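User: ok so my PI wants both of these folded by tonight, can you help

Assistant: No problem, let's get them done. Here's the first:
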Amino acid sequence: MLLETHVLQDTDPDLPALIAGGFDIVGESWGAELLLADDAAARRAIAALRAHVDAVAAAGLEVRELTPADAPAIAALDAASWADVPSTPATVHAPTSETEARDWTARGHRGFGAFDRGALVGLCVGSGGDNGYIVVAPTHRGRGVGRAVTAAWMLAAIEAGERALTAGGATENTRSLDLVRTVGFRVTERWLSLQRR
């Protein structure tokens, strides 16, 4: 059975009528941004982001840009971790296949990974200034890996000229929300997914 679904910002004037008319809120999502208004703001952001990468490197992990040769490791890490990522009708993530990972560059995506003794343990991918997703192996969570790969992706975007970076996710995914705030994003919008009872 197909459910009628609407995704609206929490400020949408149609929201009260939909709830009164038989819709329930079945998911919440957020959008965040980091705006670098001038060169001084960019320099401050770059220094803070480099510190996140350096902290993980000091612990013995390598952080670098991912290449098509990393596609099998990308697919394996994502498949092993994606079930931990909460989804809503507005924020759905399906595991990345090897073919998709190999095509990232051709589709304008850049990915950055953290490697522990040669094994991929965290990655962040995005396009331009838009963050796609972040994945960290369960064995390496809580060690700054997510911050480091996100910071590496952000540094590359800033160095490519981006001055407005965005991210988003399910509100239920508190790890992701905490991570993006730690690297400088500010939550600017909230989205509600509604389905008819």
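One down. Here's the second:
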Amino acid sequence: MTNPSHHAIFLPFAHWSLRFAVPIIVLTACFPLLAQEPRDNPVPVIFDTDIMGDVDDVGAIAVLHALADRGEVRILAMGVSSKHEKSPLCLSAINLYFRRGDLPIGRPQGDAFLRDSKYNAQIAAEFPHPLSSAQDAPTAPQLYRQALAHAPDHSVVMISVGQLTNFRDLLYTLPDRHSPLSGPELVAKKVRRWVCMGGKFPRGKEANLFHDGPAAADAIAHWPTPIVFSGFEIGVRIKTGGKLASLPKSSPVRRAYKLYNGVRPHFSWDQTAVLYAVRPDSQNWRCSEPGICHVFPDGTNQWIAREDGKHRYLIQQAEPTETAKTIESLMLHQPAQP
């Protein structure tokens, strides 16, 4: 949700020069201290999606709500990185279906990537949503500042499954009523790690990075905490969604897949990022050695192995079909009856 009480508290955004002086965290293993977090404590998450072109965004949102209902995650806020005016409304409808209509939703503050969608306008038209229009939502960078400011230090896992426009803009934010810290300082203090569905490894060109190449290059280069990438090569081998046909017609998840491809198995890029973010100690993947994901302005990425690097990327460990079973079982989750 986004209700009017959330709107008046966000200050206008102002750009400033990127002069980041924040500590770099050097890791010598695949984040072992992070992977051993107690499972009885839900992981606080901020989720950022374009929910516009591909339908795996909807699958990822279903997975996130399923994990929240299991007590594994606590969703602090969600943001939309695309400029499509129906994307926030579609997201709001799905959240309401999963009994979380009060979740705050953010929108891009300026120019952002835009393309046609096979499903988001129809979902917004067919299903109720508390958010009346995209412009009624606060900007994502300011929403993220508010959520981070109230979170315990080094606790929040941020997940991106779209363009990195909002994450770049978060780094440019100034101190405000929520925190006296600049964007980079606030991220360094509050964020545990960022899990990014993006890139191809060890080198390639993938949509989430090249649709806003300058933002991807800027955000990844200056992000002060560890980043784990779930690359194109991970989700392309994992097919889910075919079993959604068994869901009731009242499900916006089923409807979105119906509109997109007739409810047939589909690639699961975004779902892998969500699953790893919440269950980093699962056996589905292992992490690469440390290094740096260098992103060129056109969105092409190249892996540079470095012992002091703060980036990793996922490498498939379990059979993709087994990972698909885990993901699809979560996508099939239905909310409890009110």
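The domain at 42-331 is CATH 3.90.245.10 (Inosine-uridine Nucleoside N-ribohydrolase; Chain A). Residues 1-29, 31-38 have pLDDT under 50 and may be disordered. Good luck tonight!
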